[in-house]
Predict the 3D structure of the following.
Amino acid sequence: MKNSAPIGLLLRIVIASFPLALLMPGCDSSEEKGVESPAPPAKSKRKPGQPEPYYGDFPSLAKVNIRNAVLEELTRDLQYPWAFEFISDRELLLTEFSGAMKIFNIESREMLPVEGLPYIPSGKGQIGLMDVALHPEFSSNGIIYFSHAVEDASNPEMRATSVSRARLSGGQLSRVEQIFVATPFGKSTSNFGGALAFDSEGYLYITTGDRSVRDNAQNPGLLTGKIIRLTDEGAIPPDNPFVGDDSTDDRIFALGVRNPQGLYFDPATQRLFEAEHGPMGGDEVNIIEAGRNYGWPVITYGANYTTHRIGVGTAAAGMEQPLYYFLPSVATSPIAVYRGSMFPEWDGDLLVGPLKGGRIHKLDLVDGVIKSEQPILEEMEGGRIRDIKIGPDEAIYILTQSGGRIYRLRRDTDSEELEHPRERSGTRVYRVVCASCHSNGSDIFPQLADPDAWIDRLAQGQAVLEEHAINGFGTMPAKGLCDLCSDAEIRAAVRYMVEQLR
Ligand code: HEC
């Protein structure tokens, strides 16, 4: 130590800057683990403190600090799939747009047809079989719900979104019963909505599209362009927000939506998330609350496909702002909230599947606000994401329309990181904490790039160096001032330093 005067100043800079950086996963990308990575080139031109280059299969996951994930294609045998649910740990119940339902076993990879569906019109535009949902007591009563287009009995050219329920047993549907039709019927072949979700009290939510008659979304007497809330039998819950209001249909829970194909109830926060296709540039993610008006077509961030302005602008009194909107449009379809310990860094994040491009938009939701949007899994083949579900194993299952594929994204269970999922790698801790002194070019601190400064120190042995780094040594502060770092993380950082010095 030649001079210790500037240390105080440096310490203050260090204290001010690094703990925050460490709290924000994704602010740098220096994990060193790659799964199924080809061997890195023998010669590395890296300087100490620089992150390991990433040679793995998923650069888009590396960007968000996930380096030990595996993406598996479970099948590519589906024809225009739309949605799925887990009916057991191993089995998925899937819908195909043309009106077929299938059960897929993710272990045996067997695909079985489900028999007993009613007639479902399909073949034109967005007319067909859509979402599927399970009764909250499905495991004992076998009841499922599915949304689909129906024809007006007196004029088959006129159609509406409807929901049926049935009992599923041994690949056979019985007691099929239509419980809802989103009248009025219309000629348009698009904007059916059709997403289904149950909340934790057992109420069923249904999204209905505006059927391309925009103003109907604001008409409280019509069921198109709405969020509907029903009991499991299709009856009106007595606490629905408009019960007793003569001008509004009692089944309406919220109004003013365009074409919502994503609906997800998050039991942890009791929030109902919706994703909807806007006009050009106006795709939205909303948190749906009772009695609210989500503005379509009075307010929107989009323009008409002919680029004419729609409505009065982006805001109006009494109308909700979206939680998030996409510019330009990505054609938002499914939405899910990640909950689980397989990807703890994503806990509570929204996963939005677009129909444009094969990727997922990961939205980081903090205190009710979207803090960042990251495209992930751009490496997937097969675009148009139709459904995303978190499996009972906490892996992420993705259904793509193009190629009729089901993907599973899971963490590599052979990876040691699973045991300490929140633990940061030595490289990362070094870069974020230690580099501020040991790679700052100052001769006050022993520089990692200067092997001479380390000869005597290394001679003490690994255990002593780790102990000094954890408890402090001379003018080296304990843990390099990182109160948030675990002992294991500091040891990993020392190991990283010693490797660089070899
Ligand atoms: C605020 C500046 C600062 C930070 C931050 C810092 N160090 Fe140090 N470190 C020092 C100084 C100064 C010394 C030399 C201490 C001495 O010899 O008196 C040192 C020495 C060391 C030594 C050698 C100890 C010995 O026995 O000679 C190790 C190992 C070490 N640091 C590891 C780390 C690790 C790991 C981190 C990050 C977690 C870190 N340091 C962060 C300033 C820092």
